[in-house]
Write a structure and sequence with these properties.
Elements: H1 29-37, H2 41-50, H3 56-62, H4 83-89
Helix pairs in contact: 1-2, 2-3
Length: 91
Amino acid sequence: MIFSALDDDKNLNGQVNFKMIENIKYGNLETAMEYCKRNRTEEWIQQFLRCDGHNVALADGLLIEERFYTGIVQFDITLLHNIKKRALQSI
């Protein structure tokens, strides 16, 4: 079961401690929808970024401030053109 990969313990700052579990793939719609159905979208985002997404820096950055996630949103992926280039310019 997917949710066996989650660690619900919180650290002293109130942040969820995420642990990487081998052999679980987060980068697919089915897994994202399963987390979303259980109101655990933030946990899916963190697991995806830390595992399949290979972006621990972004995962850590998203934990700096409290955020509210509404779930999965469908949109035209071409709207994301040049996103990497703009991110580098802001550094």
